[in-house]
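User: Could you walk me through two proteins back to back? I'd like the raw sequence and the structure tokens for each, with a short line separating them so I can tell where one ends and the next begins.

Assistant: Of course. Protein one, sequence then structure:
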Amino acid sequence: MSLRPLFIASIGNPPPAYTNTLHSAGHTVLNSLRTWLLNPPFTKSRPHASGLLSASPDFTLWQSPALMNISGKPVATAWRTFLFSLSSPEDKKAARLVVVHDELELPIGKIKVRDGGTSTRGHNGLKSVMQALGGGMEFTRVGVGIGRPVTPYAHGNGASAEAAGNLSKGKISLTSLIKSRGLVVIISLAMLERRF
């Protein structure tokens, strides 16, 4: 049994201005996953749409360099580059794209795994990705709950007033909350993606 080649892509607004913001929860999870997997540090990769890439024999992690709502084209370019890099036709056929993104409809830190072709629920980043990939392409998406903010700062510097207040009362940071829940789900997803 061998691992299915996985290309795990996060979409969100790019660092450093948006590091650890709610709207960039996918990037936060990927940063943690990279550390946990002992993958090499992220480096900018021109062939992968100038996104940040961390590749190991088992997992390829990639962070979109684009703003959330226009992330589709870079995701599609990076995915095609990843497929081209695979040596065997079997690996190319078995490869799977996983897109990690923020999810307003879930409480902070909750995770939901869905088929990529299901409703985007108004998520402009996912709409962009689906449009760029073309209809009918199968992929998996992992939504990282950020809760529905009371104020419009989900994509700005810092969490919404309500979310920030709730997190500070519990003496837990947004980053650690997302890390603790997100890592387990993504690793579980990867293990389920084994092939014979």
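----
Protein two, same layout:
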Amino acid sequence: MISFHHAFIAIVALLIQIALAVQTIKVQGSDFVNSVTNNRFQIIGVAYQPGGSSGFNPGSGIDPLSNGTVCLRDAALMQRLGINTIRVYNLDPSLNHDTCASVFNSVGIYMLLDVNSPLPGQSLNRGEPGSSYNSDYLKRIFGVVEAFKDYPNTLGFFGGNEVINDDPSGGIVPPYLRAVNRDLKNYIAKHSSRTIPVGYSAADVRDILLDTWAYLSCATKGNSNDMSRIDFFGLNSYSWCGSASFQSAGYDVLVSDFSNTTVPVFFSEYGCNKVNPRVFEEVQTLYGPQMTSVMSGGLVYEYSQEVSNYGLVDLHDNGTASLRTDYDHLQSQYNKLNVTLLESGNSTATMLKPPTCNSGLITSSTFNNNFTIPSIPQGGQSLIDNGISNPNRGKIVDITQDNVPQTVYTSNGNVIQNLAIKPLPNDQSNTPNGQGTSESAGGSGTATGSAAGPTATKKGAAARERVQVLALVGAILIGMLWSL
């Protein structure tokens, strides 16, 4: 006989599933795939680090995902832009990220998160990696996992970013990167309810790029479940500047080089700013037939305007924001994409098996070709077995406010009226919607427009479906209690 306790647990589990706004993403071969629909997932994303790396200060009690009001504003603008993924570099795992993660979740935007930070002891030292690979470092990166593992829109973790950036680092760092991958994936396997991909973001240094990818993506002893193997490979690429082409930007070479990849490959950063304003003509090529058979999209650098001059949006000290021309140009390019085509599956890509690690995969005489990786440091295995002490575990929370309280201006100086997030049905990720944000202002002095996602009719249908499901859950509960 079913106990009331078991019946209650079953109902709670159902309600938790109903609350999700996105389906989790998994890796199959060289593709990201929606875990429920099995549609291919292409990253249409942007780097998100307001204040830049230099602005990261854990002592301030703030990081990019800790202020729900700021995230509400930025999520509304990103939803209109048409992106489905953000990359966040520097995070404080001790802070509460529930509201921000839940806001992005509600609008169908996933998160790719770096586990390292620029602070001492919180990343591998490329000059002497053995000195920084210790239990304190593992506590840091495991803390980030704990903080974000329970959000369904956590797409994956970067175990490193441009740690290998020249020949000397290519000679000593690679085994440590595989060790970090192993430790992260073992911790996730032990303490997470689902598998979360772990990967690497590489510098576009062509003489070591392919060796980095080959070293990190192969499988020791041919075991595709090798925990030290990356699940995806990101490339920070700025070779397309202005009105370049598939050939002049070297994209043809990248497609050829990665044509036999067995993990998803994507641009973890892109968007050259040598020609301003940026027109983002590379978007049509990146998401076009010449590249989608190999590449899984990319993340534009970057959302907020910083000293490096890559921003899509100006963020002001008083909380207001102004769209830049780059935002309009990128939105226009995204609106031309055929999202249905991008989601089409590739059975060949999802069935690929990794090559067995061997020295023959490495072409450079200076790059490490030894696949014996370091043992976990003292105290590390206990962290994996028992978990870190007092972990700060995030959870999805209800979002009670849709309207953005801050004033936001279009690139032509008009105020965007009624700016708000538009929560999506449970099975949808955000997509471009075919509308412009700044252009919709016209001459009225205000801007209006719909956010990406379902129309009002579809939203109403989604709401009705939610009520119907809740009614079904109630009926199940009554049936369970009746059987007691």
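The mean pLDDT is 88.

Let me know if you want the two compared in more detail.
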